[in-house]
Write a structure and sequence with these properties.
Blueprint lengths: L1 H124 L4 H18 L1
């Protein structure tokens, strides 16, 4: 009876159990292969992302460096323009001072000339002794000083 039971179990139970175990083994092997492939894909993707991040970092650093150089160059240009403008304004101011000085000297010469004529006219009108002549000259010099 035991042998018959064994033969029946072998025919009806053992075969399906073994087949089910083989199928389960194949399924697990496929899952392991799939997991390994997924792990390799993830590592590949991770490496690609690392490379992409490094490239982006290099690009950002390049952009920052370019912006720094551009700002330095623009700063130097602004400083040069400011120096040029200051020099031009200084030259204009010196020229204006020179013109005003020449104009003042010309006006002073004109006034001295007219004062000399006035003094000479007064001297001719009056015959003065030396003290009166000095007094008259002092008055005219004082009057000339007030006009300036």
């Amino acid at each position: 009876m035991f042998i018959i039971l064994l033969l029946l179990l072998r025919k009806f139970a053992w075969g399906p159990i073994v087949n089910m175990m083989k199928e389960r083994e194949e399924h697990i092997a496929k899952e392991i292969d799939t997991a390994e492939k997924s792990r390799q894909d993830a590592e590949k993707y991770l490496e690609e992302q690392r490379i992409e991040v490094e490239r982006a970092r290099d690009e950002a650093q390049s952009i920052v460096e370019t912006a720094r150089k551009t700002s330095e160059r623009q700063g130097e240009e602004i400083i040069k323009q400011a120096h040029s403008e200051a020099e031009r304004m200084k030259e204009n101011a010196l020229a204006e001072i020179s013109r005003e000085k020449e104009q003042a000297v010309a006006e002073l010469r004109e006034q001295v000339g007219s004062l000399s004529v006035m003094i000479a006219a007064k001297i001719i009108e009056k015959e003065l002794d030396e003290t009166e002549q000095e007094k008259l000259i002092e008055e005219y010099i004082q009057e000339a000083g007030e006009r300036l």
